[in-house]
Amino acid sequence: MWRSFWRSIDRFSLQHFKYVINELRAIKVVDLRNRELVIDLLQSIVEIVTYGDRQDPMIFECFMEYQVLAEFVRLLKISKNSRIEAPLLQYLSIMIQNMDSEHAIYYCFSNDYVNNIIAHKYEFDGGDLAPYYVSFLRAVSSKINKDTLCLLVKVQEDAVVSFPLYSEALKFAHYEEKMIQTAVRALTLNIYNVSDDMVFQFITTPPVSKYFSDVVCRLRKQCLHLDTFLQAKEEMCTHGRRNELILETDKIVDDLYYLKDILSVSENRLGRFITQNIFSLLVFPILLPLLQLRQQIDGSNISEVTSLYIISRLIQVIGGKRVINAVAGVILYPYLTSSVGGATEGDTVDANGNSFLNHLNDVEKLVCSGPETEGSENTSNSMFGHLGEHVSSDSQFVGGAWNDLCIERGGIFKYVFADNSPSLLLASLFLLLILAESKDLDYFLFPMIGRIPDMTTQAREFSASQRVNESIFVKFMPQILNALLKILASQPPLSVLIQWHTGWFFRKLLISQGNSLSDLNFQLFNSRERLQKELDGCWFDRIPDTFRSEWSNCRTALEESSQCKDPFFALELAACREKTDGGDATLSALQRMVEAVKVFILHLQLKAFIFKGDLPEKPTLNSTTGPTADSGRSHTSDISSASFGSDVSLGSGIPCSIAFSNAGIRDVYLVPAARGITGKLLLTEKHPFRSQRGVVIAIAPLAGLSPKIDKDHPSWLHLQIREFDPRFDTSKARGNHLKMSNHVADGRWTLGFPNAKACETARFLILEEIGKQRSFVESMLAPLLQDDFLGNLSDNQDE
């Protein structure tokens, strides 16, 4: 042990370090024959320098005296197809990352050592060198600060003319590998956060500044790709298609968060530059055609729902006073002439859209005023400087004064009141909601849209005097609520996904109205009849458990905040039409039952919220045991707990036979029994030693048996067999979906009886027990199905 200890100390000694350096200096050419030796020497140097940086100052003094970094540069130059670059960059990255001494970092960055390594002509084609190179660049960027950044740039006449670290990194900005893209973005943010004035001037000046427009243009291409994928002609929304849609949106969200990180840098010039690119290259090309303020003339059409998704996501992710008020200013422009603070009646917009540009200039002054913009340049570098490219004589602008009818049929309200398009209604309404809830919405725009509190507690404290009666939200609230009610009460009913999201909007707007419905046509209980039909279905015994599990899910979905709600739902509604798997009747029936319960729960909770002002915490199920809970036979409790191999009483079991594929024909007794919500059909073989007892060889749930006598063979009884307890996942992950963990297969038994009378008796006995089980389920659900549900709810919540 001591020998190993002294050997490790010797390895990091100054004498050994000098020996390794001299060995490295003796290398005249690097090729495949000595490549491994050179790698070992590089590894030893990095390990010793890392140790010396923390433990022995003399080692780093030696490192500087012998100019070891110059040897690294020399090795790159004398390498001949040895592929030494990757390990050299890897060890350099490790060394820089582990340096703690500011003195050591300052030295490494001086004398152009690092710049020479960065600027070396590497061959990246067809190899794995790029990840090592970018990792090295990122390691360097992680150590820069105001004192060391100047060592990595070249300056002439008080201006940066060259910045190899930044310029070379940008060449990999759109590299195929995600890891490299992430490293480059981390590197750029490290540089921006240093906040060096000359560097900011360099990166915001062409041609270097093209990087920012490239980022936004690439984001726009991803939006176009998302829309193309969304519009693909597919009949139904499969699980795989939905996952692909999520992946496409994740790419867009990643880019938005990167832009947000850049805007978070405390340098107003960079923030204005990025914001200008976002609006001129992304927002205006999407938003102006969407609002009919300009025709789409470049051929890059993006559908309305995708446009609304992108703008909503941009506000959620990037946000900020500039973005919020600029977007709100463009959206609210058509309503200025009809609002309190708008133009006089008869004000028009000329063919060139000058009035619109003047409005945007007013918005810009509003947005860019305040402490955060003091001292910034406010001349030609206007935030909306490139808008003229989008507003031309070829563009079609809305002209003349806008009355209420025009507002409903134009601008964003064209989609709010869109017929037969729930996805557009909800997507446009969501955009208006997040604008109205924003704390950054300025007083100039606030009177036109109004403010909607985001939290329930805030809503209760939000007095009527604080609402702006002239806002478009208040003005058209009855029409909006009626449009939502129309979806909730639609016949035939729309999908659960649409209804739950619609319920969220309905509750949100009711909060802003103080739960006042005025003269709205309230029809929410069409779902009761749909649920009652499921009591005759093959999954009626699972309805109470579904109520318990989905009740809290619905409450959580309704209470979700706007900032947390993902507008992905709009894309999902547009792309997907929920379906059942036609290949399996049992699974289809299960999906129908769950959907019926979920819609019924939604309607109950909304009604409770309207009349009671709150969402109930739990369903009011009647769990008491009534006379219908038991078969009345002494062995019922025995049977209700029976499992495979159990010894049970045969009681009034009916003898019959059944053929198994792997066991031939078996003589058995059919024993149906219901106790409470539990119902089972047992097939038992007579016990060999106890004549009144039997051994269970097969079990099926009573629900769904649907006993039918064969037409050609009246002594045969056909039974449909389903799962007892299906494993399905209704957890919310960007929506509410029924997902079977294991495929539920339809089963079938055919039982043979001695004669037709015995077969009919067995059928009647099964139906009798199913009826008792169903009656118990109905008694459990009775409080929810009654008209005085709210009274029952109050009693239940007080218990």
From TrEMBL:
Keywords attached to this entry: Autophagy
**Could you name the Gene Ontology cellular component terms for this entry?**
Golgi apparatus; late endosome
Domain named FPL: residues: 42-192
Name all CLEC16A/TT9 C-terminal domain ranges: 252-348
Q: What InterPro entries does the database record attribute to this sequence?
A: CLEC16A/TT9, CLEC16A/TT9_C, CLEC16A/TT9_N
Top-level taxon? Eukaryota
- Is Protein transport a UniProt keyword of this protein? no
Q: Does the keyword Phosphoprotein apply?
A: no
Q: Which Pfam families match?
A: CLEC16A_C (PF19439), FPL (PF09758)
Name the GO terms of the biological process aspect: autophagy; endosomal transport; regulation of autophagosome maturation; vacuolar transport
Q: Which family does it belong to?
A: Belongs to the CLEC16A/gop-1 family.
Protein name (database record): FPL domain-containing protein
